[in-house]
Amino acid sequence: MAMAERARIFSGVKPTGHLTLGNYLGAMRRWVEEDQHRADALFCVVDLHALTVEHEPARVRRLTRQAATLLLAAGLDPERCTLFVQSQVDEHLRLSYLMECTASDGEMRRMIQYKEKAAREQARGGSVRLSLLTYPALMAADILAYGTHEVPVGEDQAQHLELTRDLAGRFNERYGATFVMPKVTYPAVAARVMDLQEPTSKMGKSHARTAGIVYLLDEPEVVRKKVIRAVTDTASDVVYERGERPGVANLLDVLAACTGGDPERLAEGYASYGALKRDVAEAVVELLRPARKRHAELAADPAYVDGVLRDGAERARALARPRVDAAYRAVGLMA
Ligand code: TRP
């Protein structure tokens, strides 16, 4: 990267469920507050990735528009960054095929997320879609098509990013320098917000049980109820112990992320779980208030949102096209 050039950042969010507090604290907030200001940033609603498991077409479309609307509501500024929908830019699929031709069957099957999701799918008696296996090739294409330097994601994406780097290196070595080697960056605080009912697993948007998940569009009353009912543990004093007391630690992490404090220090201010939960609930409600309000305004104007996405897709296409064409030529295609 030349000194004067700004870093290019790419990240994506999958429209497989309503966006959660985990998405916001783990990723979106940093995109809004830092990344779009310091870098040449692209943010993508990766709808093609939502088709790797059983899906309802109308729901995917609705969640795709909702995710884009929420990203704008949270503060992504289309004048500062490029916001778009993956399926509106063909370059992702064009490059994904070349990534499938670069990756090996074995390395795809080693992906933890594939193994977990495939096992879950099989346990339900369903079949595993081939696209679930090849998902990381598409993800690598998402990133590499743009000459991305940095990918801000949650820690659960580490293995996919490592694979992306392997594929970039292998392709460059075989066919000549084509792709930039991307690096992953994780958020500093609350990288992983845990499920309030199951504090040892991530607050994921696609979980079936929703009592432990705070959605960005939950009404304040619903947020309060979910936080108050959060699982803690049998002790009653408030200390920060991630391993031993994951429920309380998660609440303290969320509070710290909302208020900018330090979880261990915050723990000292509480004598009971009840008081902690009340403060966490209010902090979360306040944190989400502006985005909820802005979302309601934007949702009333879908034509505006669609226009932003159309412009974003056009910009993205123009950025990706030359590099994907170069990759096609490099492997021997008549692009
Ligand atoms: N796999 C990511 C997730 O499950 C989503 C994603 C797809 C992504 N393509 C990407 C993230 C490219 C960053 C960059 O959250």
Describe the structure.
This protein has 335 residues and is mostly helical. The chain has two domains: 8-186 and 302-331, 3-Layer(aba) Sandwich (Rossmann fold), CATH 3.40.50.620; 220-296, Tyrosyl-Transfer RNA Synthetase, CATH 1.10.240. It is 54% helix and 7% strand. The chain has twelve helices and five strands. It has helices spanning 21-38, 57-74, 91-100, 105-109, 112-123, 130-144, 158-175, 220-228, 246-259, 263-267, 273-299, 302-330, and strands spanning 8-13, 40-45, 82-85, 150-152, 183-185. The protein has a three-stranded parallel β-sheet. A two-stranded parallel sheet has the order 4-5. Helix 1 (21-38) links the parallel strand 1 (8-13) and strand 2. Helix 2 (57-74) crosses helix 12 (302-330). The longest helix is centred in the last third of the chain and has 29 residues, at 302-330. The radius of gyration is 21 Å and the shape is globular. Tryptophan binds next to strand 1 and helix 6. Pfam families: tRNA-synt_1b. A motif ('HIGH' region) lies at residues 15-23. It catalyses: tRNA(Trp) + L-tryptophan + ATP = L-tryptophyl-tRNA(Trp) + AMP + diphosphate + H(+). L-tryptophan binds at residue 142. It comes from Streptomyces sioyaensis.
